[in-house]
C-alpha cells in the first residue's frame, strides 16, 4: 500500500471504526479517536509536499493494481502539480472540522465524526484517481456522507436541502458516466485517464464529451445557473458540513475541468471558451450583487463562494499560464478562507443561535479576540494583499488582461462587490455599540476555538505572504497542460 492509498483509506478506516464502536455514552473517547484519525491522516500527506518533484509534469507517488479485470478497470492512483495540494488541504480541513465539532455535536457523535473521516478519504480518492471508473466511484461516493451530514445534523429544512443537493449533483453525473463509457470503447477498452488525454477525437465527439463533463462539473463548482442548491445546502448544513462543502467539495467540479474537459476535449474547450467565460463573469457579477442583499450570514458567504469559484472557471478558459495557475491558487486559498468564514459564523451561532446579521452588532466589544480573527478572514475574502484571497484573484485578473482587457475589467469588479458585501457584514456584526443583551452576554473564544481559528489564520497568511511553495508545485504541470491544449488546436 503506497502513500496515496494510506491517505485515502486511513481516514476511512478510522471513520468505520467510529461507526462500529462509538456510542453517545463514550463520546469523549469517540472525539479523541476521531482527532487521532484526522491528525494521522494529515501527517501521512506531508511527504507529498516534502518529496514532490517540482521539475516534472509526470504523475508521482503512483500505484496501479488490477481491480475489475474483465473490464480492464484498475485501482490506479497518482498526483501531479494540478492535484497534489488538494490532498493535504482535504486532510487539514478534516482536522479543523473535528476540532470545530468537539463540543457542539452532542448527539450521534460517533456517526458525525465517522461521516467526516470517511468523506475525507473519499475526497482524497477523487484527487488521486487515474482510472476513469475509480474516479467516478469516488466522485459519486462523496455524496453519501455529505447527504447524511446535512440530513441528520442540519437545520429545520435539512431534508429538503439534502435532497436538493443530492439530486442536482447526481443527475449531472449520469451524463459524465455515459462519456466515460464512450471513452472506454473509443480507447480500445481502457479506463486509463492519461490514455484518454491522447485520443485523437473529432470536434463533434469532443463537443458532446465537453458538455457531458460540463453537466457534471458545473453543478459541482457550482456555476450559474445551476448554483441554487448551494445556498440551501450551506444554510441547513451544520458548521462542519458547510466548511467541507465550501473548502473541498466545490473543488471537485473545478478539478474535473482540469483533469477531463480540457485535456480530453481541447478543441471543444477552445470552441466554447467564450461560453465558459461568459458564465464565469455572470457568476462574478450577478452573484456578487445577490450577496449584497443577503440578511443571513451563511447565505452571504455561500453566494460569495459562488462568485469566487467563478474566478476559477474563468482562469481555466483564458488558456494562459497566469490565468490557470491563478485559478488553481484560488481553489486552494478559497478552501482556507471560506472554511474560516463559515467557522466564524458557527462560533457566533453556537452562542446566539441566529445567523441573521440583524441579531448582532458590536461583537468586538465582548469578543475582541474572536473579532480579530473574523476581520482577518473577512479581509482575505475581500482579496486584501498579504492574505490568501489576493494571490489567485490577482493572477487571474492579470491572465484576463493578457486575454482581453474588457474581460479583465468585468472580472475585477468582484473585488469591489466582494469588499462591499463583506465589509457591510463586518460593520453590522462586529463594530459599533453593543446591539442587544445577547451580544452583551457573549464570551470570547475558548482554547479549542482559538486553536482552530489560529490554524486557518496561519494558513491564510502563509499563502498570502509566501505563495511560492504552491506555485512551484503547479508551474510545470500547468505549462504541460496548456501545451497539450495548444498543440491539439494547431493540429
Gross morphology: globular
SS-derived structural category: mainly alpha
**Order of adjacent strands in the largest pleated sheet:** 1-2
Number of helices: 23
Q: Between the first and last Cα atoms, what is the distance in angstroms?
A: 41 Å
* Strand composition percent: under 5%
Q: Write down the overall mean pLDDT.
A: 87
The count of strands amounts to 2
- The stretches of 5 or more residues where confidence is low (pLDDT under 50) are none
Rg over C-alpha atoms, rounded to the nearest angstrom: 22 Å
The percent range for helix content is: over 70%
Biggest sheet record: 2 strands, antiparallel
Structure description:
The protein has 491 residues and is mainly alpha-helical. Helix content is 75%, strand content 3%. It is built from 23 helices and two strands. Strands 1-2 form a two-stranded antiparallel sheet. A hairpin with a 4-residue loop joins β1 and β2. The chain is globular, with a radius of gyration of 22 Å. The two termini are 41 Å apart.
What does this entry show, briefly?
This protein is mostly helical. 75% of the residues lie in helices and 3% in strands.
Q: Topology, pairings included?
A:
Layout: H1 3-21, H2 27-43, H3 46-50, E1 60-68, E2 73-79, H4 86-100, H5 109-128, H6 132-141, H7 143-153, H8 158-186, H9 193-196, H10 203-220, H11 229-236, H12 239-264, H13 266-271, H14 273-292, H15 297-316, H16 321-352, H17 363-366, H18 368-382, H19 388-403, H20 405-430, H21 437-440, H22 447-465, H23 468-490
Antiparallel strand pairs: 1-2
Amino acid at each position: 500500500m503506497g502513500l496515496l492509498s494510506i491517505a485515502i483509506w486511513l481516514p476511512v478506516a478510522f471513520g468505520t471504526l467510529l461507526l462500529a464502536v462509538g456510542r453517545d455514552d463514550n463520546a469523549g473517547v469517540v472525539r479523541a479517536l476521531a482527532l487521532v484519525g484526522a491528525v494521522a491522516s494529515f501527517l501521512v500527506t506531508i511527504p507529498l509536499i516534502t518529496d514532490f518533484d517540482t521539475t516534472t509534469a509526470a504523475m508521482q507517488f503512483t500505484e496501479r493494481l488490477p481491480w475489475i479485470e474483465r473490464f480492464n478497470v484498475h485501482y490506479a492512483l497518482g498526483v501531479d502539480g494540478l492535484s497534489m495540494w488538494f490532498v493535504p488541504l482535504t486532510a487539514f480541513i478534516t482536522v479543523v472540522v473535528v476540532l470545530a465539532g468537539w463540543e457542539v455535536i452532542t448527539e450521534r457523535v460517533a456517526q458525525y465524526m465517522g461521516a467526516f473521516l470517511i468523506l475525507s478519504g473519499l475526497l482524497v480518492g477523487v484527487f488521486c484517481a487515474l482510472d476513469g471508473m475509480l474516479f467516478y466511484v469516488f466522485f459519486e461516493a462523496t455524496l453519501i456522507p455529505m447527504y447524511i451530514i446535512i440530513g441528520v445534523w442540519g437545520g429545520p429544512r435539512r431534508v429538503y436541502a439534502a435532497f436538493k443537493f443530492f439530486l442536482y449533483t447526481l443527475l449531472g453525473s449520469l451524463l459524465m458516466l455515459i462519456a466515460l463509457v464512450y471513452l472506454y470503447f473509443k480507447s480500445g477498452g481502457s479506463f486509463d485517464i492519461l490514455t484518454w488525454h491522447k485520443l485523437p477525437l473529432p470536434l463533434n465527439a469532443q463537443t458532446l464529451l465537453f458538455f457531458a463533463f460540463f453537466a457534471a462539473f458545473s453543478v459541482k463548482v457550482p456555476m450559474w445557473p445551476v448554483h441554487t442548491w448551494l445556498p440551501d445546502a450551506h444554510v441547513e448544513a451544520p458548521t462542519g458540513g458547510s466548511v467541507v462543502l465550501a473548502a473541498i467539495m466545490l473543488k471537485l467540479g473545478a478539478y474535473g475541468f482540469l483533469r477531463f474537459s480540457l485535456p480530453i476535449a481541447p478543441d471543444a474547450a477552445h470552441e466554447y471558451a467564450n461560453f465558459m467565460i461568459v458564465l464565469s463573469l455572470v457568476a462574478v457579477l450577478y452573484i456578487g450583487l445577490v450577496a449584497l442583499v443577503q440578511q443571513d450570514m451563511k447565505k452571504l458567504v455561500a453566494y460569495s463562494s459562488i462568485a469566487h469559484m467563478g474566478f476559477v472557471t474563468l482562469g481555466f478558459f483564458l488558456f494562459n499560464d497566469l490565468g490557470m495557475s491563478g485559478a488553481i491558487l484560488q481553489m486552494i486559498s478559497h478552501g482556507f478562507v471560506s472554511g474560516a468564514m463559515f467557522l466564524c459564523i458557527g462560533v457566533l451561532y453556537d452562542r446566539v443561535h441566529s445567523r441573521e446579521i440583524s441579531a448582532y452588532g458590536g461583537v468586538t466589544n465582548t469578543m475582541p479576540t474572536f473579532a480579530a480573527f473574523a476581520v482577518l478572514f473577512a479581509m482575505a475574502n475581500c482579496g486584501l494583499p498579504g492574505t490568501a484571497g489576493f494571490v489567485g484573484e490577482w493572477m487571474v485578473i492579470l491572465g484576463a488582461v493578457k486575454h482581453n482587457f474588457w474581460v479583465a475589467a468585468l472580472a475585477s469588479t468582484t473585488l469591489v462587490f466582494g469588499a462591499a458585501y463583506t465589509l457591510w457584514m463586518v460593520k453590522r456584526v462586529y463594530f459599533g455599540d453593543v446591539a442587544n443583551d445577547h451580544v452583551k452576554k457573549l464570551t470570547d473564544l475558548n482554547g479549542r476555538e482559538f486553536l482552530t481559528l489560529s490554524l486557518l489564520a496561519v494558513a491564510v497568511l502563509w499563502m498570502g505572504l509566501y505563495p511560492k511553495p504552491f506555485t512551484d508545485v503547479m508551474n510545470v504541470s500547468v505549462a504541460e497542460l496548456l501545451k497539450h491544449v495548444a498543440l491539439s488546436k494547431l493540429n
